[in-house]
Amino acid sequence: MKTIKKYQPPNLGESKLTSGFWFERTENYMHIIQSMENTLLDDKNAARLINFAIAAGEAKGAFYRNDWSDGDCYKFIEGCANQYAVTGDQRITDLMEPYIPWIEKAQEHDGYINTQITLTHIKRWEDPKHHELYNLGHLFTAGVTYYEATGDKRLLDVAIKAADNLCTVFLPINEELADFGFNPSQIMGLMDLYDVTGNEDYLTLADTFITMRGMKPTKGDFNQNRVPLRKESKPVGHAVMAAYLYAGAADVYGYTQDKTLFTSLERIWQDMINKRIYITGGVCPLYSGISERGDNVHEAFGDEYDLPHRIAYNETCANIGIAMWARRMYNLTGEATYGDWMENILYNAGISGASLDMTSYFYANPLAHRAKEHIKPTFNQYAHVPNKRFKTFTCWCCPPQLWRTFSGMPRWVYAVSDKGVSINLFTGCELDTKLRNGEPVKVVMETNYPWDKEVVIMIEQAPTDGMTLQYLIPSWCSKAKVNGHAKDPGVYEAVVKTGDKITLQLPMEAVFYEANPMVEQANGMVAVKRGPVVYCLEGHDIEGAYAMDELALSVEEGMEEVVIDELPYEMIGLKTHMYYKPKGQGLYHPRTPVEDKKVPVRLIPYFAWANRSEEDMSVWLNRA
């Protein structure tokens, strides 16, 4: 018997974006899909749909590029299914049609499917780094999503057959393969399959993959395998692998109610938000190094309070992965910390990896950039630090991660329980669903958040005796009002009935932030947020021939809100003045005083940087 979690996402297609921030980002969805398809068909790209055609005998050639290529193709398909669910646009399924048969034919007779194994000399389950489970996890989620969106079971049948094969390999627990929980998207994927099929083996296997942590600590902290997850106290190692593990564990807890698992997730969360996360929500500063326990790691969480700016790695997949974890924890608990950080990541480091038209990308998301001081990838260090956005790339995992997140945003906005609805994000979006007890409900939300302060929520249908509506006043908002009544930050519940209307006023003004003194890289600096959006300064927006590092910002300066005309979506920019502070010569030099010379500048949202020609950029600014 399933244990129903407190809140769960609505079924696919029951929530639809109608206007505002998230709607605008996917409004031109066919252009995005076709751009991605072209890249996935490019012979030189790291993720390739054609690998399935070769494995299916439909094309000639050899496997090319990354072991995780299959998984990134599945993420693209998942994103397309998300978009089809809310638009019903037949062009999407027509575009997908050639690829489903390729995947079907690429599957081996016993259910196993991984083109990097089938098309090479590599044997199954030879080495965790071959990403077999990563690919399968994304297949499971894509199969479920495609079925829920279209009613077409072909990809779901492939996923079920592959999951059944996986059960024969890992159940009962296979200690010899105990270190194979590598980049573990399979835990979330198995839980998606469990939700659709009710097959208890999938829940058992998902829980088994969690129990395997620490049984065979190969690679140690790099793949979260030195310490059993139920005993862990901090986030460690490769941040994408960690995020997927923690999010999957939250899914499993939703059904098993294993308190030891949940308390470990709480410990890890608290350590992360107090010591290891950027103001933008980025989470992996370290490209290559050593963990606090002495293990070699890369693309990883760093030491406590070590959060550099220009060499910050902050892989897009990891940032979104932590938001996925936060969303699950918020739905499970209704605790504000998870909702606050989910929002913070999604408006900042979660989306800065995509250009504003969603056709070129960043892998890494630093908090500073210098156009004439590029970081060179010496000894593979800093290999993915961006200088300009890419279309094809040596690791193409982030673009489909962004796509499935943007297209899947309707299921982030709302969550549903047996007694009510939770509003997890504010945006123009309609919900037409049934509560878990079968009662039909319809909620309509209208807002231009995060640029405007007003959010209007209309209850168009609710049970006769009402339902619970949960919403979050974000931690950044100190002057909120709900239907004219002042509210402090936090999570609130109200009983609402058909015809009720709730109006939230969430006043936004530019706020200066400082870092904990232990974050040495930000000492003597300030950052600016307006509402949930972190701002940055780009060289384009400095008047006169002044360099980024010659300017200092006074917290006494006011900020004028202006529309950024040369960028889309009528985003709000912040005009102000900075003071000229001449840059000294040499590695060390006598202090140069701040001059009484005001330089006009305009700050833009951090997620929108690098959408014009290359210039310097900083989130943290010298304080005058």
Describe this structure in words.
GO terms for molecular function: hydrolase activity. Keywords: Hydrolase. InterPro entries: 6-hairpin_glycosidase_sf, Beta-AFase-like, Beta-AFase-like_GH127_C, Beta-AFase-like_GH127_cat, Beta-AFase-like_GH127_middle. Residues 512-622 form the Non-reducing end beta-L-arabinofuranosidase-like GH127 C-terminal domain. Residues 421-508 form the Non-reducing end beta-L-arabinofuranosidase-like GH127 middle domain. With 624 residues, the protein is an alpha+beta fold. Among the domains are: 413-505, no CATH class; 510-622, no CATH class. The protein has 17 helices and 23 strands. It has helices at residues 21-26, 29-40, 50-55, 69-87, 90-96, 99-106, 115-118, 132-150, 154-170, 185-197, 200-211, 239-256, 259-275, 316-333, 336-346, 398-407, 410-413, and strands spanning 15-19, 286-290, 296-300, 368-369, 414-416, 420-423, 428-434, 440-447, 454-461, 467-473, 480-482, 485-487, 490-496, 501-505, 510-513, 525-530, 533-542, 551-552, 560-563, 572-580, 598-605, 617-618, 621-622. Strands 4, 15, 16, 17, 18, 19, 20, 21, 22 and 23 form a ten-stranded antiparallel beta sheet that branches. A seven-stranded antiparallel beta sheet has the order 1-7-8-9-14-11-12. A hairpin with a 5-residue loop joins strand 2 (286-290) and strand 3. Helix 2 (29-40) packs antiparallel against helix 4, helix 8 (132-150) runs antiparallel to helix 9 (154-170) and helix 12 (239-256) runs parallel beside helix 14.
